[in-house]
């Protein structure tokens, strides 16, 4: 029953089903605690068809001590949420007010950072059209199929696009071509906003790097303005990571993805303006365009020494980003 491509990943029948009878369930302790946190009890069968997937497809933190060693079990940043309303604002508030959730150090800025991991459940469940209509993850990614006289969920979990949009046809009467256009309509607009927010945030990171170099040489900056610039940067960065780490390119909740990315663009713009103000105060002018030197950060990455691959680059479907940032400034 379990497709061969999934057998090496770890999920097993036991993770999603009781032994006898094979009814839906979830077994992950961190999800149980997360549901307690948001006051969710006694989920319906259709909600279980979401929560079985949410055992993995959620964001979480791995607590770290001052030496960056694991200091506890994984926890959900859901303290400010409720069922159907786990917002990025609430998640960020939890992540930035608990030092034990800061798991890594960003090399360019030197800032300690939290992780946001694959938040499909959080984005989908925050008022998306499909969630409010009572649709579950399994409806789209595990559509029903016939086996003799039985009607069962297809356990070859995949994108509806890779399954001939069979799942969509269970509810939608339009043609496959129309449905495909609707999916790409959403994802193209999300991609354009991701690029806007991402490059804006990267610009701030480089400006922080320049400012820190000036501080190392003795330059004094206004701490209040610096703190505000950093806060705006963190707000922008965590929003762009939230949407990038979520695997639908906006389709799971187009309206919310657009809102989150729009706010990321705004926060990045505010951070940049304050950073330019601080740099001017120490006699530095970063110029109209900030050199991002992406070749420096995208090549020779990690232990595997990965390099930038042009064929994998997401380009703006509407050509807007090319008007805002030159190839020279990108530095690829």
Describe this structure in words.
46% of the residues lie in helices and 4% in strands. It has 13 helices and four strands. Helix 9 packs antiparallel against helix 10. It is mainly alpha-helical and 332 residues long. The chain is globular and about 75 Å long. A two-stranded antiparallel ribbon has the order 1-2. A two-stranded antiparallel ribbon has the order 3-4. It has a single domain (29-128, 177-330), classed as Butyryl-CoA Dehydrogenase, subunit A, domain 3. The protein has helices spanning 13-16, 29-37, 45-54, 88-96, 120-125, 129-132, 137-141, 176-216, 223-245, 254-281, 294-298, 320-324, 327-330; strands spanning 104-105, 112-113, 144-147, 150-153. It catalyses: 6 Fe(III)-[cytochrome c] + NH4(+) + 2 H2O = 6 Fe(II)-[cytochrome c] + nitrite + 8 H(+). InterPro entries: Cyt_c552, Multihaem_cyt_sf. Belongs to the cytochrome c-552 family. Keywords: Calcium, Heme, Iron, Metal-binding, Oxidoreductase, Signal. It is found in: Cell envelope.
Radius of gyration: 22 Å
Order of helices and strands: HHHHEEHHHEEHHHHHH
β-strand amount = under 5%
Please outline the major beta sheet. 2 strands, antiparallel
Within CATH, the superfamily carries the name Butyryl-CoA Dehydrogenase, subunit A, domain 3
Q: In percent, how helical is the residue content?
A: 40-55%
Shape: globular
Average pLDDT for all residues: 94
Low-confidence stretches: none
**CATH class call:** Mainly Alpha
- Helix/strand-derived class? mainly alpha
Quickly count the domains. 1
């Amino acid at each position: 029953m379990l497709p061969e491509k999934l057998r090496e990943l770890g999920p097993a029948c036991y993770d999603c089903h009781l032994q006898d009878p094979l009814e839906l369930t979830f077994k992950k302790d961190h999800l149980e605690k997360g549901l307690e946190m948001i006051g969710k009890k006694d989920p319906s069968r259709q909600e279980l068809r979401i929560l079985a997937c949410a055992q993995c497809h959620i964001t979480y933190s791995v607590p770290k001590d001052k030496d960056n060693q694991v200091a506890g079990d994984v926890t959900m940043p859901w303290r400010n949420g409720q069922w159907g309303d786990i917002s990025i604002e609430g998640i960020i508030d939890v992540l930035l007010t608990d030092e034990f959730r800061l798991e890594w150090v960003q090399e360019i800025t030197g800032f300690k950072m939290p992780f946001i991991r694959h938040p499909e459940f959080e984005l989908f469940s925050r008022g998306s059209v499909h969630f409010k209509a009572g649709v579950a993850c399994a409806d789209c990614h595990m559509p029903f199929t016939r086996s003799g006289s039985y009607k069962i969920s297809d356990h070859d979990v995949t994108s509806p696009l890779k399954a001939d949009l069979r799942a969509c046809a269970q509810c939608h009467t339009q043609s496959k071509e129309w449905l495909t256009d609707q999916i790409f309509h959403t994802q193209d607009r999300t991609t354009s906003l991701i690029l806007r927010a991402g490059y804006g945030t990267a610009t701030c990171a480089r400006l922080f790097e320049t400012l820190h170099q000036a501080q190392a040489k003795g330059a004094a900056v206004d701490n209040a303005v610096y703190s505000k610039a950093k806060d705006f940067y963190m707000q922008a960065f965590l929003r762009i990571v939230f949407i990038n780490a979520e695997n639908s390119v906006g389709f799971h909740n187009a309206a919310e993805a657009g809102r989150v990315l729009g706010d990321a663009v705004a926060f990045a713009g505010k951070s940049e303006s304050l950073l330019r103000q601080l740099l001017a105060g120490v006699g530095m002018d970063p110029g109209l365009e900030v050199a991002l030197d992406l070749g420096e950060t995208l090549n020779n990455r990690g232990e595997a020494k990965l390099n930038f691959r042009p064929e994998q680059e997401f380009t703006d479907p509407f050509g807007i980003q090319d008007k805002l940032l030159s190839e020279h400034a990108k530095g690829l």
